[in-house]
Amino acid sequence: MGTVYIDDHRPLGRINKDIYGQFSEHLGRCIYGGLWVGPDSDIPNTNGLRNDVVTALKDIQVPVLRWPGGCFADEYHWQDGIGPNSQRKTMVNNNWGGVTENNHFGTHEYFELLQQIGAAAYINGNVGSGTVQEMQEWVEYMTMNGTSPMADLRAKNGHPDPWPVKYFGVGNESWGCGGNMRPEYYADLYRRYQTFVRNYDPAHPLTKIACGPSNDDYHWTDEVMKIAGHYLDGISLHHYALPSITWSGKKGAALSFPEQEWVSLMQSANEMEELITRHSAIMDKYDPDKKKSLVVDEWGSWYDVEPGTNPGFLYQQNTIRDACVAALTLHIFQHHVDRVHLANIAQMVNVLQAMILTDGAKMIKTPTYYVFKMFLDHQDATALNTQDDLPDTVTTSVSKTDKGYLLSLVNYGLTAAEEVRYAFQTHTVTAAQGEILHSTTMDAHNDFEAPDVVQPEAMTAGLTHDAHQVTVTIPPMSVVTVHVQ
Ligand code: AHR
After folding, report:
1. pTM for this structure?
2. CA 221, CA 281: separation in Å to the nearest integer?
3. Would you say the CB of residue 18 lies under 6 angstroms from ligand 1?
4. Active-site positions?
5. Domains in the chain, start-ordered, CATH in brackets?
6. pLDDT per position as a tens digit, 308-336
7. How many CB atoms are closer than 10 A to CB 90?
8. Which of 156, 198, 233, 332 is the most buried (most CB within 10 A)?
């Protein structure tokens, strides 16, 4: 039994809906096959984008989508991906399987995707192998209104109007695949490149994001904030949850894993709390008013690829274990609304902790997808301050929405159900409706033969309320949301 005391007088702050952002890289079958099939495909599509996938994504109201990478971003030359397909240059996707990239999905197709799913743009520019001029011209191509060489080229390619770009990342993992730089060197380069990332639309200034640390590289954060902090709006953080302790060797399987790997994965996912706390503390030194964001633009679980699939494609199944990782991580973000204003789970389709898996014309929604759906009303709600004495395996977040309150909780324990009492300080409870995502086996998942094994159900038992409190009995391996009026 644990109690969550809800202090509705002391809100933590707005939950920026962009923490529910996603990431789509030119990697494996994320873009090609997963999102883009081309207008001539037999798979039903609109302007080349799969109708089934777009419909599913609209239902989870993806607020923002990062593209084109990832490591791919620092080898991407945007001019290769515009104009008639027959004239688009091909390249080798060196980071991801060495396959040929035909550049049929480029800037115009990305904005078509955003328009279809209703998401905002987060473009990641190329610092590793691109020039300042190339980056400047891309921003001009996308956002310049009126007449200019790049605006004219965009119009010639069929889009006279500029597109809004909300976020612009200057390099990706510049300490690794993005150029193996030292923080001092990157920070100087950042200052230079960002100078030419101009705001062509003063009404919608770009939010500029610098490459931040991997995991616990606190030195990187300190140096970049010290040298370039004045010139950035956000600094990224990448942290993946792995069942094995290190990156070397095998990470562990997505399915049929031992109990110990459930436990170690949850530990790894929970490290996000310390990472955010400590990187934020460094940012506080340079930005005490918390104007700059810590942008967790890559997070999620990472396993060995599914047997028989291309190791460079990072295709993995997704289970109730991943749903628990998603829920506990989103809770951590919601506890840090003062610093974390944008996050992007990796990745959207067919790669790592995906929302959606496809196989030819078939498509399934993963348990992670359903967490994003169940948490929808947290987007742009007000996170409330809570005190609790919850068991170690249970985490929660409470928000005030325009319809009432949303309580979300996860029990990532393997054996015990937990009773959780939510005590409201002032609110008089009149109704409570619950939804549960649950399984009794650790690797329960959806696949193309059985697509609906794990999906949310209305809670018909284990949920009671009186005027001052709501009590939930949450089984092990479960995610629950309760809408309270
Ligand atoms: O998401 C897969 C890869 O993980 C990204 O390309 C890279 O930025 C990170 O190392």
Report:
1. 0.97
2. 10
3. no
4. 173, 298
5. 17-379 (3.20.20.80), 385-484 (2.60.40.1180)
6. 999 999 999 999 999 999 999 999 999 99
7. 11
8. 332
Indicate if the pLDDT at residue 342 is higher than 80.
yes
Pocket test for ligand 1, best of 24, 94, 180, 238 (most atoms within 8 A of CB): 238
For 372-406, how does the pLDDT look when each residue is reduced to its tens digit (9 = 90+)? 999 999 999 999 999 999 999 999 999 999 999 99
Decide: 70 in ligand 1 pocket, CB within 6 A: yes
Farthest-apart Cα atoms in the chain, separation = 67
Residue in the structure block whose two tokens are 């609209």: 58
pLDDT of residue 82: 98
Q: Are 15 and 334 in contact (CB under 8 A)?
A: yes
Beta strand 342-346 pairing with 21-23? parallel
DSSP sequence for 335-374 = HTTTT--EEEEE-SBSSSS-SEEEETTEEEE-HHHHHHHH
Q: Is 346 in the pocket of ligand 1 (CB under 6 A)?
A: yes
For atom 6 of ligand 1, which residue has the closest CA?
Answer: 70
- What's the CA gap between 478 and 436, in Å, rounded? 7
Give the Å distance between the CA of 260 and the centre of ligand 1. Answer: 26
224/220 Cα distance (integer angstroms): 6
Cα–Cα distance between 113 and 349 in angstroms, integer? Answer: 13
Confirm or reject: Cβ of 25 under 6 Å from ligand 1.
yes
